[in-house]
Amino acid sequence: MLRVFVEAAAVLGSSNGLGVVLEAKNLTVPAGSTAVLPCHSPRMVWTRDRLKDRQRVVHWDLVRSSPEYAMERILDMSPGASQRVYNGFNKGRIFIPDSAFSDGNFSLIIKNVGQTDKGIYTCNLHHHYCQIHQSIQIQLNVTKSARKEKRYWDGEKTVFVVLLGSSVALPCVNRRSLWREGLQEDQQQVAHWDFQAPGVRPDRADRLVDLYASGERRDYGPLFGQNKMSVAEDAFTLGDFSLSISELKPTDKGLYSCHLHHHYCGLQERRIFRLTVGPPLPPNPTVAPRIFQNDGPEPNVDGPRVVNVILPEHRSYSVQHMGYFLATVLLLAFIVVSVIVLTRRRKKRGMEYELRRWDRGNVVSEGEITLDCTELNTCKHEPLNSDYKNNLLKERGMAKDCNMGELYFIK
User: Fold this and answer.
1) Is the CB of residue 155 less than 8 Å from the CB of residue 147?
2) Which of 10, 45, 237, 252 makes the best surface tag, with the fewest CB within 10 Å?
3) 142 contacts 117 by C-beta, under 8 angstroms
4) How many whole angstroms separate alpha carbon 115 and alpha carbon 92?
5) Is residue 160 over pLDDT 90?
6) Interior angle at CA 242, CA 236 and CA 247, nearest 5
7) Distance of CA 400 to CAs 313, 367, 394, 395, 406, Å?
8) What is the pLDDT of residues 348-375, one digit of tens each?
């Protein structure tokens, strides 16, 4: 089984004279098996360039602030073809040098600058074969005062302030080799594999194979002749330069590197693989039963195996349990408070009931005491045979005193 371990990201992107490292991996493969070291290049088109003159083009565009930031194509040009100016008014007045694709100078020259030439110019360089696109913006302003002529950078683009009626050259320079004519394009595209054994310096690595876009192939050593190592014949068509190694042995471990060179496009890529050969796989991998002391052989069970997986508690899991606990505590507190409130209400109602009964009993007792008082007062009356028996005024006074006594007793 193939196991891949990606190395530190610091390795990726490092560059030196050998090219930019785009990929670095560790591979561990069992002995006797076949290893495939992948090497793909979807970024580049590894085919022959038969129409190079149509693959490269430069064009200038103008964006005016009025009306409504309208865009206008000024001119375009391809190698081996005359430049095309889109506005008849600009013919002979606006142009780029004829040697643009030889010296990489695509500057736009404007003669007799007018107010209509104001705006933002864009120089667009395209190389469709190498998939390269570059744009350069320059802003052109026109003034009537010679003292205001200047050139400065506004933070995003270069600004030219030129005198009305003068001439100006808007620079657009790209002297990279890809903008020059390529010689023998088939020899400009090369792919090769190197092998560095453990303890060997990088400059002493062994060359395994060289591949050319023309179909030429150079093998170094007997490994490819014995079909132990191989690369696809249509590598430049598919962009797949993977190296296959069969019947791995411990002597095959080491550092393998894939180098892709496209001198015409100025691109260099490198991929590094560290191959380790492990122990060979058993012919018939079986799992021996585990027999412990004082135990017999395990019974043969045809049922499915059960695997217990213990997952660590997640933070949200503990928070959920804490929520359940708080909800339970709040519910119990609500029940206790409800019981206490109901108990107090019942006690209050019972006290009110007892007060009412006591009030009613006092009313009855007061009536009885009144009668008793009357009787007592009656008992305290003078006998009928007294001297004041026939005195009406004295009877009234006695009755009044008796009534007053009753009222006082009630209070």
Assistant:
1) no
2) 10
3) yes
4) 18
5) yes
6) 140
7) 96, 19, 10, 9, 10
8) 887 777 777 777 665 544 444 444 444 4
Closest CA to 58 of 79, 89, 44, 72: 79
DSSP reduced 3-state for 383 = coil
* Token pair belonging to 164: 């009305």
d(CA 41, CA 241): 8
pTM as predicted: 0.50
Q: Where do you find CATH 2.60.40.10 in the chain?
A: 20-49+185-279, 56-176
DSSP state of 236: H
Beta-bridged to residue 173, according to DSSP, are 105
Q: Which amino acid is at 211?
A: L
Instruction: Write down the residue that tokens 């004519």 correspond to.
Output: 181
DSSP line for 253-300: -EEEEEEEEETTTTEEEEEEEEEEEEPPPPSS---PPP--TT--PPP-
Report how far apart, in Å, the C-alpha atoms of 361 and of each of 109, 133, 374 are.
125, 112, 20
In contact, 410 and 402? CB cutoff 8 Å: no
Burial level of 52, CB count in 10 A (0-12/13-18/19+)?
middle
* Residue 223, token pair as written in the block: 């490994």
Kindly report, residue by residue over 247-257, the tens digit of the pLDDT. Answer: 888 888 899 99
Q: Is 231 helix (H, G, I), strand (E, B) or coil?
A: coil
Q: 257, 39 in Cβ contact below 8 A?
A: no
Chain centroid, CA 131 distance in Å: 28
Q: What angle do CA 195, 264, 192 make, to 5 degrees?
A: 15
Please give the CATH architecture assigned to the domain spanning 56-176.
Sandwich (2.60)
- In the 3-class helix/strand/coil scheme, how is 302-355 assigned residue by residue? CCCCCCCCCCCCCHHHHHHHHHHHHHHHHHHHHHHHHHHHHHHHHHHHHHHHHH
368 residue type, one letter = E
Q: What is the CA radius of gyration of the chain?
A: 55
- Distance of alpha carbon 9 from alpha carbon 4, whole angstroms: 15
Query: Which CATH code for domain 20-49+185-279?
Result: 2.60.40.10
